[in-house]
Design brief:
5 helices; 5 strands
């Protein structure tokens, strides 16, 4: 599995935690930044993640900002992208099962690292039910 991931400054720490988690699971991760907590614009990472998923270079994507809303809206501007904002594992699983989501948007300011791992794992474990 190939996952594209990107965050703005508010999600940098959470993104790094998720990259480490995915690495331990043997998942290939393509990191689209940011590489620091210095202020930056979330579209600068959300667009490349969505493009990677939309072109098939990555199977799924994860985008992170403070509320999750900005990166979610940005990703959904791309053809073929079905980005879903999730704040708990059930919402993440339902987004895959019922809506065939291919990008997960996370709200870094409203969830902790452990919650994010549970949300991501639920997203990855679920499949579209048709």
């Amino acid at each position: 599995m190939r996952i594209a991931i990107g965050s703005d400054h508010a999600g940098h720490s959470l993104k790094q935690h998720l990259i480490e988690h995915l690495g331990r699971k043997g998942v290939h991760v393509r990191d689209f930044g940011t590489d620091s907590t210095e202020s930056m614009d979330y579209p600068d990472t959300a667009h490349p993640v969505a493009e990677a998923v939309g072109t098939g270079d990555s199977d799924l994507g994860v985008v992170i900002c403070g509320s999750g809303n900005g990166v979610n809206m940005t990703a959904n501007k791309h053809p073929g992208i079905r980005s879903a904002l999730a704040w708990n594992p059930e919402i993440a699983a339902l987004a895959r099962q019922h809506n065939n989501a291919n990008v997960l948007a996370l709200p870094a300011r409203f969830i902790d690292d452990d919650e994010a791992v549970q949300i991501l794992d639920a997203f990855l474990a679920a499949s579209f039910e048709g």
